[in-house]
Amino acid sequence: MEYQTFTNGVKIPMLGFGTYEIPSDTVGPLIQDALDTGYRHFDCAHLYGNEKAIGEALTKSNVARKDLFITSKVWNTDQGYDKTLKAFQQSLDDLQQDYLDLYLIHWPDAKNFQLTLDTWKALEKIYADGKARAIGVSNFSEDQLTELAKTATVKPMVNQIERHPYKVQKALGDFDAAHQIVNEGYSPLGHGHAMLNDPVLVDLAAKYHKTAAQVVLRWDIDTNFVVFPKSSKPERIKENFDIFDFKLEPADIDRINALDQDKHLNY
Known about the structure:
single chain, alpha/beta, oxidoreductase
């Protein structure tokens, strides 16, 4: 495994397992498959509706808590200081944990950013109380991060954004890195989009004797993005983990970067 390090010294595995849109009645065995494969980082959210089942699976496993990295997020309708504290406790209870490794604001409230600033104050309390080892945001722009920095006493350690070869996010990614904010990329494989059939990715897959998906995940890590592909197939879970025996050449990273279309594939 490879790691990124937050400003407070906490390390995050650069490859995790995504749990978005995995039903509660099927997520448990997949969590165990992921653990058996070697995953220790799990990206969760209250919105996904499966945190209770994930908590049960993690609790039943024989992996020590200190070896796990668990993320959750506060959803839009739970923003605000008091509501965020309540939502955090709900996720903590559902996941059957005493603390989380990372807690994020799922989306900024663009129409009422003061509400998001109040939400961040709640995250700062959660962090100060030792209930989360790190705190961050998701889907924030440069302007929103700049606005947050004006009142934050703890700056975000993470910005989780949509990121894949058709949406490279270079400007935002560079901004985050310049401000010591770790980049996380969701939807790295485009949710089954035909992107993986792109001739450049197919060519690179043949060159490295890997699949196009493995090449994309390696590209994420080689460009300093933490990534957490989701899969409901045990064989794909294993395939996605098999990316630590090669690195992309700089020229090949440039070829993938050149595929950028600033195209959303997640909506």
